[in-house]
Amino acid sequence: MKIGVFTALKFQVRVTVHFPQIIINNTLANTKYVAKVDNGMVTGEKIEQNKLEFSKQ
């Protein structure tokens, strides 16, 4: 399983890959989000840096 790590200025991201979870590292806000793909929609979940965990699906 590969996890795509990238930097996004805006949280509106088009996902063309089939990863269960995509980590978005927003360097401007210094905040990390976990993007989940649900029926073609991308929803963001704000997480703390010390609780950054991946669940392999």
Jot down its keywords.
4-stranded mixed β-sheet, 57 residues, single chain, 4 strands, mainly beta, globular
SSE topology sketch:
Blueprint: E1 5-6, E2 21-26, E3 31-38, E4 41-47
Parallel strand pairs: 1-2
Antiparallel strand pairs: 2-3, 3-4
Q: How is this structure best summarized?
A:
With 57 residues, this protein is mainly beta. It contains no helices and 4 strands.
- Secondary-structure content class: mainly beta
State the total count of DSSP E strands.
Answer: 4
Instruction: Quote the average pLDDT.
Output: 52
Low-confidence residue ranges: 6-12, 48-53
Major sheet: arrangement of strands: 1-2-3-4
Main sheet: strands, sense, barrel: 4 strands, mixed
Q: What oligomeric state do these chains adopt?
A: single chain
Question: How much of the sequence is in beta strands?
Answer: 35-45%
Helical stretch count? 0
Overall domain count? 1
Alpha-carbon distance between the two ends:
9 Å
The run of helices and strands is: EEEE
- Rg, please? 11 Å
* Dominant shape: globular
- Helical content (DSSP H or I, runs of 4+): under 10%
What would you note in describing this structure?
- With 57 residues, the chain is an all-beta fold.
- It has one domain.
- 0% of the residues lie in helices and 40% in strands.
- The chain has a four-stranded mixed β-sheet, with no helix packed on it.
- The chain starts with a strand and ends in a 10-residue tail after the last strand.
